[in-house]
Amino acid sequence: MTTSLSPTTSRLTGSFLKDLDYSVVQQCMHCGLCLPTCPTYTTTKLERNSPRGRIALARAVADGRMEMTPAFGEEMYFCLGCLACMSACPAGVNYAEIFEHARAEAERLGVLNSLKRRIIRWLTVKWLFMDLRRLLLVGRLIRIYQTLGIQSLIRRSRILRLFPQPLQELEAMTPTIPPKFSAPLIAPVTPALGKRRYRVAMLTGCAQDLIFSEINRDTVEVLARNGCEVITPPRQSCCGSLHGHNGEWALAQQLARRHIDQFSPDDFDAVISNAGGCGSHLKHYAQLLAEDAGYRDRAKKWDAKLKDVHEWLMAIGLEPVAGQGHPAQTVTYHESCHLCHGQKITRQPRQLLSAIPNLTLIELPESNWCCGSAGIYNITQPEMAGQLLERKMKHIRGTGAGVVANGNSGCLLQLINGARQHQVQIRVAHPITLLAEAYRRADGHRP
Ligand code: SF4
Ligand code: SF4
Questions:
Q1: 18-25, long-range: CB < 8 A, 24+ apart
Q2: How many angstroms is it from 94 CA to the middle of ligand 2?
Q3: Is CB count within 10 Å lower at the N or C end of the chain?
Q4: Which of 95, 371, 378 to mutate to test the pocket of ligand 1 (most atoms within 8 A of CB)?
């Protein structure tokens, strides 16, 4: 079973929590088995920071025993949404549903509202991520800032110390923007190499397109190598996970409709995502559009066609990597929360990595423990995110691996920053990139 992070439409009282199916809220039997798997509870040892505590709070609001307060809203945003508690729960409590409804309710009532918060949310969630041309324009400006040497000049000078701490931290996390985004790297139609077995659509994403366009190119190349004709429209949209996870799900619905219109599920054998966080959201458009008669049926087909790239490649049978002379490499694998807990995809990325000749896979302790990225959590909750990152880097260092592989753009960025901050000499790479390099080597090309 995969899990949803998209609240259903509120129809009765207008309250997301009061209208949530009561069987979901009351299902928790308070056993506490989820507690040791929860990163926030494990760190603070406070019941309110645990899944059980958060469920109890949500139930109290749903029952009308407690008013929605700013403290409630803050608690829901202190939760990472990593869904580790769902993997641990023997009763199958749908924590994702409770948590998303709780956040949506906090937004509906505006309990966390402040002018600064409203401006930031409007600029990011409602403006920047609703049209990727705006996001890519910002990316180009950052690229100019980086390539002209302004960034290194500013970092070397002491100017940044004059700015508030959050701004300094944000600057330190600025990703390196590549010279090209996905559109100039990938043809709209990439033919299958050899006999065409499938026709698939490739979702290039938003952050993925902005920061990791080469992973998108590698994904298309690997899909083509495995008998897929790949359709990659140059102009695409954000999948809406950012909106759905932050209580803006009217916008999430708008983006879901846009995707279904652009990639009609009847036209493809699969619609491919290569980012674990996006895939977890993309697989639940049917729930998001359950009340929309014009899209409901197509959304169901869409969900069935949506595949994570590891999942798809292992399902169709991975083309073996031929050739000699592949360099020896030691790789450890950090699992994206939404790939392992959200989509229950744990085996396939490891199988894919193990198919690369001369690659030794070293199991990472606590591989499915959140790295602190969690969407924009590392920006909104830097202290907790920093603690989780430190824990993750300690384990990664302990493996002695030369590469850490991961299948989600947010985690990749967090790991790159973590390696720099904690001075861990390690390459951070998507499993698909490692596979693409191996295929190129096998074909006698430079990786
Ligand atoms: S989603 Fe993660 S952080 Fe939130 S309650 Fe569950 S385990 Fe804890
Ligand atoms: S969420 Fe599940 S594991 Fe956690 S206390 Fe409730 S029933 Fe137990």
A1: 18/61, 18/62, 18/64, 20/62, 20/97, 20/98, 20/101, 22/62, 24/93, 24/94, 24/97, 24/98, 25/55, 25/58, 25/59, 25/62, 25/98
A2: 10
A3: N
A4: 95
| pLDDT, average across residues 101-115 | 91
Q: How far is the CA of 88 from the centre of ligand 2 (A)?
A: 8
Half-sphere exposure of 88 (CA within 13 A, CB side): 20
180 in Cβ contact with 216 (< 8 Å): no
| Residue owning the nearest CA to atom 7 of ligand 1 | 38
Quickly tell me which residue has 């990595």 as its tokens: 353
What does the pLDDT look like over 354-408, one tens digit per residue? Answer: 999 999 999 999 999 999 998 888 888 999 999 999 999 999 999 999 999 999 9
85 Cβ inside 6 Å of ligand 1: yes
Would you state the structure tokens that stand for residue 95, as one six-digit string? 């924590």
Q: State the chain's maximal CA–CA distance in angstroms.
A: 68
**Which residue is associated with the tokens 């993997």?**
87
Task: Indicate the pairing of strand 189-190 with strand 228-231.
Answer: antiparallel
76 Cβ below 6 A of ligand 2:
no
Residues 116-125, mean pLDDT to the nearest whole number? 90
* CA distance to 89, 179, 226, 251, per residue, from 245 (Å): 21, 30, 34, 11
Report whether 378 contacts 388 (CB < 8 A): no
Question: What are the angstrom distances between the C-alpha of 434 and each of 253, 267, 349, 395, 443?
Answer: 35, 30, 11, 21, 14
The tokens of 40 are what?
Answer: 């926030």
> Which 8-state DSSP code applies to residue 362?
E
Q: Calculate the alpha carbon distances from 418 to 78, 166, 172, 296, 423 in Å.
A: 21, 17, 11, 42, 8
Going by alpha carbons, the residue nearest to atom 8 of ligand 1 is 38
Residue 406: closest CA among 344, 353, 330, 355: 353
Q: Is the CB of residue 368 less than 8 Å from the CB of residue 341?
A: yes
- Could you tell which of 55, 79, 83 is best to mutate to test the pocket of ligand 2, judged by most ligand atoms within 8 Å of the CB? 55
Distance from C-alpha of 391 to C-alpha of 125, rounded to nearest angstrom: 30
